[in-house]
């Protein structure tokens, strides 16, 4: 009986398993397709990025070249020769001769320089907070006419 | 019958043996290739896929003392043509028509040259300007490849050419500061490896390794571009005016040993540099540093300094000038004054004022050979100055220790004949005379700024040569030499200066070197200058040729240096 049951059950389970296999295969194919597509997209993006990188490197090179070119131009424009040329173009010329004058005055030193009164700070009474330490005999001496 | 078929025949055995041996051979070879020689073949495979390129480090700039560039690096391009892409005539014609005018070459010549080039790419032009390179990037002619490189640019033109020097095609310094400081300026190139495709282009996200190149450092010189231009123009004009063979001018800051300006003629022009021209090779060296000359009467100042420093004489000490000085034991001609004059009783100050050879001989004998050459050594003439530039010789001095030295050498050396030093030696020694007696090491590079930081070169005192008192006395005596002689050609109205003329003579020749060494102002010497004019035809004497050059230059130098100080002070003192 058991043998009979097994014999009878076999075709049904086969059909069942075939039914289960189809979606699995479909899913597998789908997965493979998705993975393949992702791979293509990834490769495509890498290639695009590669081209972009090359273009950016080229742009970087061009910009760096421009920078050094501009730096050199700035240096050339600030050269003495060019400044002299421009000065001449503007009508300036080097002094023909130098005259030296001997002045009989003492060159003012820093300490002897006096500001005009209107700029000088107003003099204030000096407030000396320290007590007068002179002795009585000193005060007495100060009273003398020849002191 | 069936049994016979299964019989193990010799043919079968042979076949099996052959198969076994073949299989064994393959296995052995596989073991050798994949296991034993794995490293070697892996490397070969990598070499096939990886491309090696050298990334050059950008070369640093050379700046003057105020930071103005004298030599910089600008981008440039080498232009290559791939001949395989020019096999089609119309394509080649179109590309050559675009490229040719930009690199000044005929299109037909370009096509012929490129197609004759069988191996690799054809180098059509070297180091073309960035402007042309950028234009070619835009136009992108077929088969034309641009390889980035660099070249030197000189914003100040040919200024200080012998000091700066130059570099070769391999970007290595060959002369001047470029050669002496090549390590600092050159930086470090780097090898870069990257994976490439069949066309040789880099594969994005492919394997690659290598380090970034380390850029070269910038070098700041002690040279001032204004003073350098001033002396270069002046020297050029004076050489023409006196129909001279050449000349030298060196300006030094006496307190530090910094060379403010240094020029020599003949020299080369950076804008017309041609390394293939052998005649130019003699023009590359900075003669003020590399060539020796006999200083003539300028040397009398050093002889006098030695006498004063030893306490043997004072400015007022007298000797009797008979117009001749006998050299004992020689049997030759007595030494005479340059103008064959005799002055009778003469002071040491007058000795310098009239530049008397007899007085220098008298003084040298008083000093003695041993002490005299000790001072010559202390002034640095027995050694190179170690300024940092290449090709510096030692002075050529015969001393009493040498077998070929005679007493006449002491006599002639005392007034600068028979002794040879470089102009840099001389200006350094003169700086010691006026700076308080210290011999400073001359230098032209004050600072190096690179990736590792800032390195500053400070003034170096080599030794004390004379006392401060002697130095002060020498300043006054040299002032008397110029301002104390009414018609002296070096006098500058409104400025107290000091100096000494020199005229180097040559045996059996009318050739002379006219020179003048001076300083200003006397109160606080800001600069020392040495001027030499080689073989002037209009006049032969230092007083007539070189001293007037000092008179013209000194006020300009003082005005310039003074103006700088004033500006700095104004900024510091502003409220």
Main traits of this protein?
heterodimer, A: 147 residues, mainly alpha, 3 helices, elongated, B: 575 residues, alpha+beta, seven-stranded mixed β-sheet, five-stranded antiparallel β-sheet, 21 strands, 38% helix, 21% strand
Describe the fold and architecture.
- The complex is a heterodimer of chains A (147) and B (575).
- By secondary structure, chain A is an all-alpha fold.
- Chain A has a domain at 28-88.
- Helix content of chain A is 63%, strand content 0%.
- Chain A is built from 3 helices and no strands.
- Chain A is elongated.
- Chain B is α+β, with helices and mostly antiparallel strands and 575 residues long.
- The termini of chain B are far apart.
- In chain B, the strands form 6 sheets. In chain B, strands 2, 3, 4, 5, 8, 16 and 17 form a 7-stranded mixed beta sheet that branches.
- Helix content of chain B is 38%, strand content 21%.
- Chain A binds chain B through residues 46-47, 49-51, 53-54, 58, 61-62, 64-66, 68-69, 71-72, 75-76, 78-81, 98, 100, 102, and chain B through 68-69, 72-75, 130-131, 133-134, 137, 148, 150, 153, 155-157, 159, 201-205, 225-226, 229, 493-495, 555.
Quick take:
Chain A has helices at 2-77, 80-89, 136-142. Chain A is mostly helical.
Write the layout of secondary structure elements.
The complex is a heterodimer of chains A (147) and B (575).
Chain A: H1 2-77, H2 80-89, H3 136-142
Chain B: H1 2-5, H2 10-36, H3 38-49, E1 50-55, E2 62-63, E3 69-81, H4 89-102, H5 107-116, E4 122-129, H6 130-139, E5 144-153, H7 161-164, H8 176-180, H9 182-186, E6 190-195, E7 208-210, E8 218-221, H10 225-241, E9 246-253, E10 258-265, H11 287-290, H12 300-309, E11 318-321, E12 324-325, E13 335-336, E14 344-347, H13 348-353, H14 357-367, H15 369-378, H16 407-414, H17 423-434, E15 438-440, E16 445-450, E17 453-456, E18 461-464, H18 468-483, E19 498-505, E20 512-520, E21 527-534, H19 542-545, H20 547-573
Parallel strand pairs in B: 2-8
Antiparallel strand pairs in B: 1-6, 2-3, 3-4, 3-5, 6-7, 8-16, 9-10, 9-21, 11-14, 12-13, 15-18, 16-17, 19-20, 20-21
């Amino acid at each position: 009986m058991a043998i009979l049951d097994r014999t009878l059950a076999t075709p049904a389970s086969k059909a069942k398993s075939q039914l289960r296999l189809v979606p699995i295969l479909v899913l597998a194919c789908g997965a493979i397709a998705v993975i393949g597509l992702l791979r293509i997209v990834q490769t495509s993006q890498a290639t695009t990025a590669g081209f972009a990188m090359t273009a950016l490197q080229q742009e970087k090179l061009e910009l760096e070249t421009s920078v050094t070119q501009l730096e050199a131009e700035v240096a050339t424009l600030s050269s003495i020769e060019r400044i002299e040329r421009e000065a001449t173009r503007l009508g300036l010329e080097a002094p023909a001769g130098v005259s030296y004058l001997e002045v009989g005055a003492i060159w003012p030193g820093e300490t002897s320089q006096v500001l005009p009164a209107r700029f000088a700070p107003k003099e204030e009474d000096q407030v000396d907070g320290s007590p007068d330490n002179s002795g009585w005999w000193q005060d007495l001496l100060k009273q003398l006419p020849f002191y | 019958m069936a049994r016979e078929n299964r019989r193990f025949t010799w043919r079968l055995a042979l076949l099996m043996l052959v198969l076994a041996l073949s299989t064994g051979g393959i296995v052995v070879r596989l073991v050798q290739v994949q296991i034993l020689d794995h490293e070697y073949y892996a490397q070969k495979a990598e070499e096939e896929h990886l491309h090696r390129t050298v990334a050059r480090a950008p070369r640093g700039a050379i700046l003057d003392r105020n930071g103005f560039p004298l030599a910089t690096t600008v981008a440039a391009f080498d232009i290559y043509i791939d001949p395989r892409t020019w096999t089609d005539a119309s394509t080649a014609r179109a590309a050559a028509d675009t490229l040719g005018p930009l690199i000044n070459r005929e299109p037909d010549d370009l096509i012929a040259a490129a197609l004759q080039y069988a191996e690799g790419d054809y180098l059509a032009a070297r180091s073309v300007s960035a402007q042309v390179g950028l234009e070619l990037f835009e136009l992108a002619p077929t088969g034309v490849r641009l390889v980035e490189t660099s070249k030197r640019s000189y914003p100040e033109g040919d200024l200080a050419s012998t000091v700066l020097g130059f570099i070769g095609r391999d970007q290595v310094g060959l002369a001047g500061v470029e050669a002496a400081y090549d390590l600092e300026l050159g930086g470090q190139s780097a090898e870069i490896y990257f994976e490439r495709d069949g066309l040789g282009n880099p594969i994005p996200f492919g394997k690659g390794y290598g380090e970034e190149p380390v850029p070269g450092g910038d070098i700041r010189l002690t040279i001032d571009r204004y003073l350098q231009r001033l002396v270069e123009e002046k020297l050029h004009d004076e050489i023409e005016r006196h129909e001279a063979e050449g000349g030298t001018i060196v300006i030094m800051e006496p307190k530090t040993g910094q060379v403010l300006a240094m020029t020599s003629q003949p020299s080369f022009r950076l804008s017309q540099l041609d390394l293939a021209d052998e005649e130019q090779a003699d023009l590359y060296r900075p003669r003020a540093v590399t060539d020796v000359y006999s200083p003539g009467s300028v040397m009398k100042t050093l002889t006098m300094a030695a006498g004063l420093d030893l306490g043997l004489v004072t400015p007022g000490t007298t000797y009797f000038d008979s117009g001749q000085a006998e050299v004992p034991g020689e049997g030759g001609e007595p030494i005479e004054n340059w103008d064959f004059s005799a002055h009778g009783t003469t002071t040491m100050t007058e000795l310098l004022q009239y530049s008397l050879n007899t007085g220098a001989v008298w003084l040298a004998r008083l000093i003695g050979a041993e002490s005299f050459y000790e001072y010559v050594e202390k002034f640095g003439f027995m050694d190179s100055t170690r300024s940092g530039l290449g090709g510096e010789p030692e002075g050529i001095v015969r001393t009493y220790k040498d077998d070929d030295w005679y007493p006449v050498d002491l006599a002639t050396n005392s007034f600068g004949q028979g002794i040879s030093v470089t102009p840099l030696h001389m200006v350094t020694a003169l700086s010691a005379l006026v700076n308080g007696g210290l011999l400073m090491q001359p230098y032209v590079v004050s600072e190096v700024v690179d990736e590792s930081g800032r390195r500053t070169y400070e003034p170096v005192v080599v030794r004390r040569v004379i006392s401060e008192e002697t130095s002060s006395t020498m300043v006054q005596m040299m002032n008397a030499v110029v301002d104390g002689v009414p018609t002296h050609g070096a006098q500058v109205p409104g400025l107290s200066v000091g100096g000494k003329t020199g005229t180097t003579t040559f045996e059996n020749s009318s050739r002379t070197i006219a020179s003048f060494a001076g300083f200003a102002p006397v109160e606080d010497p800001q600069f020392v200058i040495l001027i030499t004019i080689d073989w002037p035809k209009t006049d032969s004497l230092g007083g007539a040729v070189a001293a007037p050059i000092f008179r013209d230059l000194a006020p300009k130098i003082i005005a310039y240096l003074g103006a700088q100080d004033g500006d700095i002070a104004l900024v510091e003192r502003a409220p």
